[in-house]
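Dear colleagues,

As part of the handover before I leave the project, I'm documenting each prediction I ran so the next person doesn't have to rerun anything. This entry is a single chain, and its sequence is reproduced below.
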Amino acid sequence: MRILGVDPGIGRTGWGIIDIENSKLKIVNCGCIETRAGTKVENRLLTISLEIESLIKEYKPDVLSIEELFFSTNAKTAFIVGQARGVVLLLAAKNKLEVSIYTPLQVKMALTGYGRADKNQIAQMVKVILKLEKIPKIDDTSDALAVAITHAFSAKLKNLNIRN
C-alpha cells in the first residue's frame, strides 16, 4: 500500500509518501510546498492544488492520510488552513483516493505512545521508524510523514482484526 501523508497549511504544506512492503515501512519521497506571504490566497491555494495533484499523478498513492484541523486561539489562521485542507481533500475525491483523517492526539499516540509529545519527539520517531539518516529540515514534512505512518499502523491493526 502506498500512502500520501499531508500536513496542510497555507504557507507550508508538508507531504510524505511511504510504502508498506511486507509489514515494513519505506519512505518513497517527502517535501514541503511553500507559498509566499502577501500572495493572494486564491493563488496560494492554486499552487498547493497543482503540487498535490502532481504528486498524486506521479506517485499514485492508494490512500491520502491527513491531519484533522486543530486550532486553539487564532480562528483566522484556522480558516485559511481549512481552505488548504479543503483543496487537498477535494483532490483526493477527484482522484478517487481513500481518505483517512487523524487528530494530532492520534498521531502522537501512534508514534510515541504519549499524547503530549512535542514536535521534536515526533520528528525523532519519524526518523527511527523510517530509518532516515536525519530528521527532515522542515517540521511540516516530518508531520506529514507522521500522519502517513499513523495510517500505516492503523491499517495494520485493521488487517489484524479482520484476520482474527
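Residues 160-164 have pLDDT under 50 and may be disordered. The radius of gyration is 15 Å.

All the best with the project,
I.
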